[in-house]
Automatic annotation (TrEMBL):
<feature type="binding site">
    <location>
        <position position="69"/>
    </location>
    <ligand>
        <name>Ca(2+) 1</name>
    </ligand>
</feature>
<feature type="binding site">
    <location>
        <position position="143"/>
    </location>
    <ligand>
        <name>substrate</name>
    </ligand>
</feature>
<dbReference type="InterPro" id="IPR002016">
    <property type="entry name" value="Haem_peroxidase"/>
</dbReference>
<feature type="binding site">
    <location>
        <position position="73"/>
    </location>
    <ligand>
        <name>Ca(2+) 1</name>
    </ligand>
</feature>
<feature type="binding site">
    <location>
        <position position="71"/>
    </location>
    <ligand>
        <name>Ca(2+) 1</name>
    </ligand>
</feature>
<dbReference type="InterPro" id="IPR019794">
    <property type="entry name" value="Peroxidases_AS"/>
</dbReference>
<feature type="disulfide bond">
    <location>
        <begin position="34"/>
        <end position="114"/>
    </location>
</feature>
<dbReference type="InterPro" id="IPR010255">
    <property type="entry name" value="Haem_peroxidase_sf"/>
</dbReference>
<feature type="binding site">
    <location>
        <position position="75"/>
    </location>
    <ligand>
        <name>Ca(2+) 1</name>
    </ligand>
</feature>
<feature type="disulfide bond">
    <location>
        <begin position="180"/>
        <end position="208"/>
    </location>
</feature>
<keyword id="KW-0349">Heme</keyword>
<dbReference type="GO" id="GO:0006979">
    <property type="term" value="P:response to oxidative stress"/>
</dbReference>
<keyword id="KW-0479">Metal-binding</keyword>
<keyword id="KW-0408">Iron</keyword>
<dbReference type="GO" id="GO:0020037">
    <property type="term" value="F:heme binding"/>
</dbReference>
<feature type="binding site" description="axial binding residue">
    <location>
        <position position="173"/>
    </location>
    <ligand>
        <name>heme b</name>
    </ligand>
</feature>
<dbReference type="InterPro" id="IPR000823">
    <property type="entry name" value="Peroxidase_pln"/>
</dbReference>
């Protein structure tokens, strides 16, 4: 199962591979300097996946958060002694450590053998690591749980992505988790958010009582949380999406291929 998840992660990352990329990119950028780069990275990533399943959603989310702020330049990895780097922004504090660890281990393995770095999926390579990483530049560049359809489409369009791309990328939540404070307003409002299935709302309340520790998180796919499938979309239609409430005047068509 982990091997399948690894490949699916690579396929989904392709969707955002061209977001604000800088420089001349090519799929064979390291053909001369590190011809075995892809196999080296693939081995490290597969090993990490086999150690902990959290690596799958963590790596996907880390990549997304990096690309939507400053572009796909690894600036989310930069640390600041002043606590004001991208990774210190409120929206990034919940990024799981396993995502960072995946990138670090892959980078170390490549540097040991080639003194180079790069991703493991077929993508135009050659991006340089970012030199700017500021927490203040994160706000407004990542989608929030209460965004409506217009806001979501606008944000994704700003990154060269269509509504279909946005819907496809949201499918990554089939393996992800959400902290209770991201949807507490939906279950503790009066009345309870009517877009939620009543039974599911009760499940959320049991898992996330009032004033619960903000570090507590639940699966975003309550049906098949450890399988990369399309049940996430089925859950949304059934009112079982804890962190996504798209407010629009008509239903959003979910393509059959998803």
């Amino acid at each position: 199962m982990f091997q399948g998840c690894s490949r699916t992660v690579e396929e989904m990352l392709k969707v955002i591979k061209d977001i604000r990329g800088e420089g001349q990119l090519s799929e064979d950028f390291y053909a001369s300097s590190c011809p075995n780069l892809e196999s080296i990275v693939s081995q490290q990533v597969s090993t990490k996946f086999s150690q902990t399943f959290v690596t799958v959603p963590a790596t996907l989310r880390l990549f997304f958060h990096d690309c939507f702020v400053e572009g796909c330049d690894a600036s989310v990895l930069i640390s600041s002694p002043n606590g004001d780097a991208e990774k210190d922004a409120q929206d990034n504090l919940s990024l799981a450590g396993d995502g960072f660890d995946t990138v670090i281990k892959a980078k170390q393995a490549v540097e040991t053998q080639c003194l180079a770095g790069g991703p493991s999926w077929e993508v135009e390579l050659g991006r340089r690591d970012g030199l700017i990483s500021q927490a203040s530049r994160v706000a407004g560049n990542l989608p929030e749980p209460d965004f409506n359809l217009v806001q979501l489409n606008t944000m994704f369009a700003r990154n060269g992505l269509t509504q279909l791309d946005m819907i496809a990328l949201s499918g990554a939540h089939t393996l992800g988790f959400s902290h209770c404070d991201r949807f507490a307003n939906r279950i503790y409002s009066s009345p309870i958010d009517p877009t939620l299935d009543p039974g599911y709302a009760q499940q959320l309340m049991q898992a996330c009582p009032r004033n619960v520790d903000p570090s507590i998180a639940i699966n975003m796919d309550p049906e098949t949380p450890r399988t990369f499938d399309n049940v996430y979309y089925q859950n949304l239609i059934a009112g079982k999406g804890c962190s996504l409430r798209i407010k629009c005047s008509k239903p959003i068509p979910i393509p059959n291929q998803l």
